[in-house]
Amino acid sequence: MTHGSSRRRAPRRTRTAITVAAAGALAAAAALAFSPTAQAADTLGGAAAQSGRYFGAAVAPHLGEADYESTLNREFSSVVAENAMKWDATEPSPNQFSFSGGDELVAYAKEHGKSVRGHTLVWHAQQPGWVQGLTGDALRQAMRNHITKVAGHYTGQIDSWDVVNEAFEWDGSRRQSNLQKQLGDGWIEDAFRTAKAADPKAKLCYNDYGTDGINAKSDAIYRMVKDFRARGVPIDCVGFQSHLASNSDLGTYRQNLQRFADLGVHVQITELDVGGSGTAQANVYRQVTQACVAVARCNGITVWGVTDKYSWRAQETPLLFNDSYQKKEAYGAVLAALNSAAS
Ligand code: XIL
User: Fold this and answer.
1) Where are the active-site residues found (predicted)?
2) What stretches of 38-140 adopt beta strand conformation (E)?
């Protein structure tokens, strides 16, 4: 008998003794385990997983901060780079790629068993200066090359990519970005086809804000997605950023998610944050979570940061953990809504 296996025997004896002594208590616990209360998970990621969903957070470079990292590790099952995978970060000069920030996040996710959303391949904002100056076919080639190289670099490692971000105006017209003006209406489908070739397995999403109900903007996006599905343009998901306030009207929020889901795409809440505090804020978080779990194809929620301290809307304290990483009322509301979907 090796030293190793004799060492393994000792804990087994210990466990047996504990099990015998605690048999009565265990029987009581077993009965409780079948009640919904006892099943409730005590982390966001764990609670979401009970109904097959992820619960994610946008991550900025604060992983060296102990409370930041432990909160992220414990609560979230998915991550997205708040900035590190955007065009200005990944291709600062033409065809010169810099993947360090994104690579770190993907390595972190792999090590901790979390899935990754990719954000974002093509957007009018946070473009490097050299892209802003391009016209016509040069811009088209730059866009295709960017998508091919970035989605190609991460191929097989991204659950869902925001291929195109924020291409519509409030009135449902196309945003008059450089992409729209230089390339015309076809640039969005061009981007999706290029992404499909570079990473055939990732879910490919269109992502936008102000789509928190049935309105002119979400109507226009709905028509585009319907058309893409009818013509076989590869689109798999629609992201609803959901940058909200305590008084946001969510009267048609669930219905809006459902009509997109009925087109056969997944829907995801991609950048949730709610300005405000206390019960009013918690109620908005609850409504959004309940809407997602009521829609079978709503497969995940991401909040746009871990702590109020580092939020892009820090003054509005819009997240689930306060500056000292304490759980806010909104946290309890989200956790309960996720758990009730599972019971
Ligand atoms: C924001 C980041 O949170 C900030 O750090 C950055 O300065 C600007 O961009 N919609 C999006 C996100 O799709 O990429 C934006 O993120 C917030 C709005």
Assistant:
1) 271 (nucleophile)
2) 54-59, 78-81, 115-123
Span from the CA of 312 to the centroid of ligand 1 (angstroms): 7
Q: Which residues of the chain have pLDDT under 70?
A: 1-38, 343
The predicted pLDDT at position 38 comes to: 52
Are the C-beta atoms of residues 79 and 56 closer than 8 Å to each other? Answer: yes
Q: How many CA atoms lie within 13 A of 248 on its CB side?
A: 27
User: 221 C-alpha vs ligand 1 centroid, how far in Å?
Assistant: 20
Predicted local confidence at residue 266, as pLDDT: 98
Q: What is the pLDDT of residues 11-24, one digit of tens each?
A: 343 444 444 444 44
Helix (H, G, I), strand (E, B) or coil at 180: helix
Residue having the nearest C-alpha atom to atom 13 of ligand 1: 165
Q: Name every protein residue with a CB atom under 6 angstroms from any ligand 1 atom.
A: 82-83, 165, 241, 271, 312
> Strands, E, within 276-337: which ranges?
298-303
pLDDT of residue 33: 47
Domain boundaries, the chain: 5-13+44-340
pLDDT digits (tens, 9 = 90+) for 130-169: 999 999 999 999 999 999 999 999 999 999 999 999 999 9
What is the set of active-site residues? 271
Residue 5 confidence (pLDDT): 37
Task: Judge whether 90 and 150 are in contact, CB under 8 Å.
Answer: yes
CA dihedral sign of residues 16, 21, 25, 27: positive
Please state the φ and ψ torsions of residue 77, each to the nearest 5 degrees: -110, 0
The atom number, within ligand 1, closest to the CA of 166 reads: 13
**H-helix segments, 22-99:** 23-32, 36-39, 44-49, 66-75, 87-90
Q: Which CATH number fits domain 5-13+44-340: 3.30.70.360, 3.40.50.1360, 3.40.50.920, 3.20.20.80?
A: 3.20.20.80
Written as one letter, the residue type at 117 is R
Would you say the pTM of this structure is higher than 0.70?
Answer: yes
